[in-house]
Specification:
This protein has 2 domains: 6-95, Phosphorylase Kinase, domain 1 (2-Layer Sandwich), CATH 3.30.200; 100-292, Aminoglycoside 3'-phosphotransferase, Chain: A, domain 2 (Alpha-Beta Complex), CATH 3.90.1200. By secondary structure, it is α+β, with helices and mostly antiparallel strands. The two termini are 38 Å apart. A 4-stranded antiparallel beta sheet has the order 1-2-4-3, with helices on both faces. The chain has a 3-stranded antiparallel beta sheet with strand order 5-8-9. The protein has 10 helices and 10 strands. Helix 9 packs across helix 10. This is Aminoglycoside phosphotransferase domain-containing protein. Residues 60-257 form the Aminoglycoside phosphotransferase domain.
Length: 295
């Protein structure tokens, strides 16, 4: 996806927000007409290869997260072009990325593609985990050092920030279980599933054609979390994917420790509700538990 020329972008950003914002809303309507809806109700494809995300919260954190990733890693993520807000929502304008969600393309990928996906993701996770913290060591927070948000905790309402893992774990089921202790706190995507990983066709060095990861999107919940967080969060939705890809997600995290104990504790939690978190029991727990019995 070609970058927007810097001189054109610079000139556009000089224009007052009260003009830019209605322009984006108009482009969103045009985009819906031209391209239809995307996989997320909050995200609209615009003309000129751009995307607009509209949220009531999270856009400032996502914008900062994308900046950190561009600064410290080679992980392919969208580039932030603008961030504006009205009385109801915040609008994040970004470049697009090549490819399509792995959730839609997974049946077209070969076993070799699947193994190369594992290798790529291990490299990307290593890089984002090396991003330096924005607060004190072991501080659990979003990328701005503020309260973090995850849909599995209190329906996504902000919590924290926390001084340490023990304080954070009080929001989990079995909060005093020693399994929820002793982890490094690292930069985390916090919603790493196959809908948020893009893949595209490539030509390998040996001349064969295949698929490779072309981008990772949807960083609004990212922050600094215990190191197991991306692993267990990704596997929570494993029942949505076929067995090959559920196993691939397990393999992605094996070099980092695998987090078998953490997964087992979450399995116990899934039978009690929708996740590892305190709340009203729901239907997902039994689905996920039954699925993981097959692995």
């Amino acid at each position: 996806m070609p970058d927007v020329p810097h001189n054109l972008l610079g000139a556009w950003l000089i224009i007052p927000q009260f003009i830019r914002l209605p322009t984006y809303k108009l482009l969103r309507k045009i985009g819906h007409h031209l391209y239809g809806s995307t996989s997320s109700l909050a995200v609209s494809r615009l003309p000129f290869g751009l995307y607009l995300k509209s949220t009531s919260e999270g856009a400032f954190n996502e914008s900062n997260a994308l900046g950190l990733i561009h600064k410290y890693t080679s992980v392919p993520v969208p580039r932030v072009l603008d961030l504006v807000a009205d009385s109801r929502n915040t609008y994040l304008l970004t470049t697009g990325l090549r490819g399509e969600p792995l959730a839609r393309a997974m049946d077209m990928l070969s076993d070799r593609d699947c193994q190369e996906f594992v290798d790529q993701m291990q490299s990307f996770i290593s890089q984002i985990r090396a991003i330096p913290p924005v607060g004190p060591k072991n501080h659990i927070c979003n990328t701005l050092g503020q309260a973090c948000s995850d849909p599995r905790i209190r329906d996504g309402n902000p919590i924290g920030p926390f001084d340490d893992e023990a304080s954070f774990s009080q929001y989990l089921r079995h909060p005093d279980d020693p399994t929820w202790r002793g982890h490094q706190v690292v930069f985390t995507h916090a919603d790493l599933n196959l809908r948020n990983i893009l893949v595209d066709k490539v030509t390998r060095l040996d001349g064969t054609r295949g698929w490779a990861v072309s981008g990772i999107v949807d960083w609004e919940n990212s922050g600094f979390y215990p190191e197991y967080w991306d692993c267990t969060k990704a596997q929570f939705e494993g029942f949505r994917w076929d067995e090959r890809w559920a196993r691939a997600l397990v393999e992605v995290f094996r070099p980092f420790g695998g987090y078998a104990k953490e997964i087992e504790l979450e399995k116990r939690s899934w039978t009690e509700g929708d996740g590892a978190f305190r709340g009203t029991p729901g239907p997902w727990g039994k689905l996920v538990e039954d699925f993981y019995k097959t692995l």
